[in-house]
Specification:
By secondary structure, the chain is mainly α. Helices cover 68% and strands 0% of the residues. The longest helix is centred in the first third of the chain and has 36 residues.
Length: 105
Amino acid sequence: MVRKSPLDDPENAAYAWRRFRQIMRLLASVTLATVALLVGLLWFLYPDASIHFFIAVALGAAFTMGLTGALMGLVFLSNGTGHDEAVDNRLPGADELFGRRNKDR
């Protein structure tokens, strides 16, 4: 029988998503500060660089931090709510799947 996920409960799900949004707001402020510091430092070091360089660096850093933070936030949400424990994983291990035996090599 498949176990129910704690996220199936609307109250638990609301709390989890509220926490995720809180993490994302914190990440957005850290990202904004980091990008501003990075662009300021690059402006100081390379004052003759094209404006396109600064735009590309700012967008690249913001996108990377945003995507990484969002994925990590979803990992924390999944693990913190007990959703991971509710997964039914009865697949065979690699040794059983490929017929290997535990031998000293």
